[in-house]
Amino acid sequence: MKLIIAAIKPFKLDDVREALTAIGVRGMMVTEIKGFGTQSGHTEIYRGAEYAVNFVPKVKLEIVVSSAMADQVVETIQKTARTDKIGDGKIFVLDVLQAVRVRTGETGDDAI
Fold first, then answer.
1. Residue 85 gets which letter from DSSP?
2. Can you state the percent helix, strand and coil of the chain, rounding each to 5?
3. Which residues of the chain register pLDDT less than 70?
4. Range of the domain at 23
5. How many domains are contained in the chain?
């Protein structure tokens, strides 16, 4: 099993969720986050005053899938979340050693 963590732009969330559902992803966790990468924040003007935005709003997706499906999920997120502008996000893939469904006690691939 693989854990896929993706940080994407918030306005891309619905598109990514629909694309993942279409390929058979049955669940994900979503968290609103703030961060910065290459863009290192930026400046904005609010009511005539300029101020620095050091952390940019993002959405973090956490998805556990079978190892066989991981590459397809990464490719789907990458294609769907891409805007070709700086700050499109990052995707990380980690190994999952164990998964347990709390309600039934199912483990491994059966739990996801």
1. S
2. 30, 40, 35
3. 39-46, 50-51
4. 2-111
5. 1
